[in-house]
Every structure is written in C-alpha cells, then in structure tokens.
Amino acid sequence: MREHLHTALELAASGIPPLPLRAGKVPFGNCRRCADNACGGRPNMKTPGPCACPGPCHAWAAATTDPNVITSGPWRRAWLHAEAVAYHPGGAGLTVVDLDNADAIAWARETLPATQVVPTTRGEHWIYLGRMQSANAVRPGVDIKSTMAYARWLGFGTGTMTTLPDTVRALAGKHPPARRPSPHSVPVPAQSGVGRCPHRSPVFLERGIAMAEQRITAARSAVHATVYGAFLAVLSTHGRCGCLTDTHVARLFAAAQAKGESLRHCTDAWTNARITLGL
Predict the structure, then answer these.
(1) Fewest C-beta atoms under 10 Å: which of 19, 24, 104, 188?
(2) Which residue, 145, 143, 133, is CA-closest to 101?
(3) Entry pTM
(4) Residues 3-37: pLDDT tens digits?
C-alpha cells in the first residue's frame, strides 16, 4: 500500500530501518534466488539466512535506511502488497521491551524506568535508547527486540525515550559496565584515537559534521533516534582517528538541543554510540 511506502521512507529519513510485513505480521517470502529457504532461513522467514540477495525476504536483515533500495523494483512491489510496516530496532540503536498483556505492563511500571510507550494490539512497546541482544520470553509476556529482530511500527507513542537500563539488559543475561557520565558542558571526550587523521582533509571532516547537524536539524519526528544515528555516523567515520575535537562535539550537541534534546540525552546518545562502536 502506498501509505506503507510513505511511512517506510519517513522512518528511513529518521535513521530507523524499515521492512514490509505481509499478513500474519511476518516478512515476505523468499525471493526466487532463495526458493525453498536455500539461504538457510527459517520457513516463516522471521530469521534470515546467510545470503545477501537484493529482495526484501530476509526479515530484519532486509531492513534498510537507503531510499534507493526501499523504492527499488522488488521492494516497491512488496510495499504495494504489505499489510504493515516493521523496523529493525537494533539498526536504529533502539531496544523494544514488548509487553504482551496487562500483567507484563504492570510489572514494567513497577520495575522499569519510564520511557517512550507505544500501545499495541494486546499490550505495549516500551522503547529505550540503546541496543542489546534480543531475547524472547525473558519473563511471562515479555520479549526483548533489538539486534537481529524486528518490531511492528505502530507510531511514536507517548513519553520521552530514556537510556536502556541495566535492568533490561539483565533480563537477557547481559551485564555490561555502566557508563553514564554526569551532565556538564560537553561531558564526553571527543577524541577516541591518536595520530594524523587518515582522511587527510579537514574539508572531509567539516562536511561530515555539517551533514550531521543538517540531519538533526531537519528531523521532524523520531528526534532521539535521529540524533543517535547522526552521532553514530560521525563516530564511525572519525571516532578512531583522533580528528574530532570538543568543538565538533559541542556543535552536534547544540544542534540536538535546538531540537529539544536535553544535555543528558545528548550525553547518553554519544556514549551509547561510542559503546556500540567499541570506542
């Protein structure tokens, strides 16, 4: 359906990788190249196989933010027949705590920090900034959807997205060390590497910072995810060479704060991006 394609392009522009769903909330079937699950994926296509075919038939691995791919022939045909839109939370640096019933919701309200909440058919999605390993049935009525998983897109919900808490990570058996700096002026060291910048061009760096500022400034929705995606893009390119300075980081933070982000959210997004990249 045309509205699903429009939604997918809006999500992609915000740094959230979408994918089409057919009836039953499952991804589309295998393409001809992967007929009969030759790629090794599960029959219901909720888990992709190892191949990299161009069709949208590999569940979360098919999700992309590239508008050229989304509007290409195979994808366009899939969107025309799609019943719903899904997205890859981990690809956007997010984690969805899927609460499937009233008891699970009650548990979350008593146990987890408040965050952005999206109503679902049977319960709620609690969305946190930060990604982790996905896990099903971590407790009755509770699944975790982040990396290597997809969640149905049901809108932006209500509330302010907060940083993924260790309480949620612990549900999947993950206990990473906490890294949450106290807020103050540009709290995270900019430089993650040493030595001469391998890009050998300050123009390249300036263009990257300017593009990140523009991406944040242009965001009309999903500001948290857009800011995180912009930070991740800058750090993935310049985070290891030592060319980033506090001035560059201050520019990015200023752009994010101009869109309504708090200094704490900027700090958490920058730190989570560094952790994700192993910096």
Answers:
(1) 24
(2) 143
(3) 0.60
(4) 899 999 988 888 888 989 888 777 776 566 665 55
